[in-house]
Amino acid sequence: MMNKIKVGVAGVGSLGRHHTRLYQDSKISDLVGIYDTNTEQSQKIADEFQTTVYTSLDALAEDVDCFSVAVPTHLHFQTVSGLLKMGKHILVEKPLTSTVSEAKELVKFAENHGRVLHVGHVERYNPVINYLQKKVNDPRFIESHRLAPYPPPRSGLLPRGTEESVVLDLMIHDIDIILNLVDSSVTAIDAVGVPILSDSEDIANVRINFKNGCVANLTASRVSHEYMRKIRIFQSDAYLSLDYQEKKGELVYKDKQSIKREDVPIEDHNALEKELEFFITTCRYVIDNGSVPDENISARHALDALEIGDRIVSQINEKKN
Question: 105 and 42, same structural domain?
Answer without folding.
Answer: yes
